[in-house]
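Escalation from tier 1.

The customer reports that the assembly of two entities below gives different structure tokens on two consecutive runs. Tier 1 could not reproduce it. I'm attaching the input and our single run for tier 2 to review.
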Amino acid sequence: MHRTRILDHAVLILGALFLTLPVVVAFMTSTHEAAAIHSTGLMLSPGGHLVETYETVLTRKGGFTGQVTGARMMMNSFILGIGFAVGKIALSMLAAYAIVYFRFRFATLAFWVIFTTLLLPLEVRIMPSYEVMSSLGLINSYTGLIVPLLASATGTFYFRQFFKSVPEELLEAARIDGAGPFKFFIDVLVPLSKTMIAAIFIIMFVYGWNQYLWPMLMTTDERFFTLMRGIKQILQVWIGSQIPDYNEAFALAVLAMLPPVLMVVLFQSWFIKGLTESDK
Amino acid sequence: MATIEIDKVSKVYHGNVPAVSEVDIKITDGEFIVLVGPSGCGKSTLLRMVAGLENISSGTVRIGGRIVNDVEPADRDIAMVFQNYALYPHMTVRENLAYGLKNRRTPKPEIEARVAEAARMLELGPYLDRKPRALSGGQRQRVAMGRAIVRHPSAFLFDEPLSNLDAKLRVSMRGEIKRLQRRVGTTSLYVTHDQLEAMTLADRLVVLNGGRIEQIGRPLDVYHAPASTFVASFIGSPAMNLVQGELHGSKLAIGPALIDLGDTLPTQGAVTVGFRAEDLQAVGAPVDASAQIGSATMPLRVDYVEELGSQRLVHGTLGDQTITVAMSSDAPLTSEMQVAVPLGRLHFFDAESGRRLVWSSVEPNRSTTAADLLETAR
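Tier 1 run:
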């Protein structure tokens, strides 16, 4: 018995190390100077430049125009992530509401059409989407960055399943209580979906935050750059014999990881509830 | 307060399956009507049509004299209590009670007063700030009733409100509903599949079968004079014994038993004869049939006995037909016995259609019933 317990812990510790070490290495390395990194490679011990590196990364104006700071990119990423998550939830809740609660022709067909788009990743429609956005003049705008990604089959599917599990009598009770379709949605369905909304918000926020291809296509103006693009930007700066700012790239990577991690850590109880709770 | 008139109401689902056909019920102001029948008899559909949750295929429903066929449920001035309570899980008891009033833009102080009144009536005071999930089944049921009461509607609709409660609670809530309805005097339509609930609650009960009305009447009238074999077997527990008999003149033959009715019935030949288990009595030794004036004596072969404590149910066979006899639990038991039923407690039904055959001299002669007493007391 005792031996197995040690073995269990060994396996778990090994697994934990395996998962966290890259992050630790990235963080430790980011606290050294670029030159040191260049000569010795990745670090496991803390360096002495933590504050200044992160400060530089967040506040130094960079890029071709010399206008964009790390903080700015971070804000852009937040706008994209939150706009993306909120928009997706609003849209897919309304779509699911229509599909579940209103009897209209081809409702089931509509649902399956939405559902099959799950099979099509963004990359498949990236050209037509870009074409539409560019002819609408929405390139280099938050609208262009967010709106084309909002339709969400996953979200619609989750909310549909959830709404179907809400007892029919609640709707009937609300009808007798004088609540119209809009009131029922706002007063009953939305509060009931709270945990579901939280779970989907987290998934969608992380998904939106990590978007890379779409922002790269849609934004040429550096003011709209997201963090994901910024990291790459730093490593591209190979001017003459200058050493790339490895430390800053790592710092930016760590910063980019932070919000999704915080989001999941802070909301994990809601997240689990939303995905597992079934009794209403 | 209002009357409800259900006039030739039918419900046909697609595929031409009639769930309710041509039902007529007139409910007077303040009356407590119970719709009772087996599952699938259309009682819930009928209630939901009155509530406006189901479209009416044909016929009219009037509430307080106004035709409400095309009126939204919210505008029918009714309140409904659902089987699974249908409380809003994210709202406190107070908010649950107030929601309907808030949607009707009732002034705040008025809402508060009505919620307080309902809470006092239903003893919900200590729970007003709890969520439904922190309440027991009985408390949730009371909240559901409170939600109906605060609205001061012209009618209450109950859709099997007690089915989700355990047996003991069901009995006490049954009493509570009755008491409450008497107190507020609101016209009520109540759906149940439980004949006991129907008997105890109803001013009048409506027995439904296959979407049609089998009988409407006061509980004891229905009990004592069921209009058909269906009603006879549905109302009363244990179910009425129904056996096949043969009429020849004034003689009735049921299996081996030959009974002298002392009168000739308008029908002859095959009939269905009904008698209640509790109207049967064991008679001592096999006696001369003619000595038992005014009662029908039949031989019974006992199969098995169910002890209920207060009484025992003896299941046995009369010829080749099974019957049940309710006796006091100290009555002597033998494997072969004679049982007798007063002739006045025999019910005759058409062997084909199952409809009651009215024969005045064997019609039960009742004294004043409890329902009459209550009626005069009101």
